[in-house]
Amino acid sequence: MSTVPEAMVTATGPVRVQVEPTRHIALADGTQVRVLASYPVRPEADLFSIEAPIEFRCATCCDPCEATLVAVRDEWLVCPGCYASTERISDIPPTGSTVTGSDRATAA
Asked: Which terminus has fewer CB within 10 Å in the chain: N or C?
């Protein structure tokens, strides 16, 4: 596992937020991106400011996104636009959990 300082990272699967040894988002490929700040705004999704931009396909709208501010819902990344545009993010069914890793790779 490596910590990514400033390079663009591509996420193609589920992610996990971890606190030890430092707070970071662990991507499916084992890459770790350090969390700079977290914002506990909604109980159903966590919002994080991260050290390096992540390129990913949003689990809600399926659009490609590049961001240093990401939401994590049910182990999938959600773009800032989808996170901000919903009153309750739990009202939108996650599309990411129904897309397989190989589908995500070809869709990106």
From this structure: N
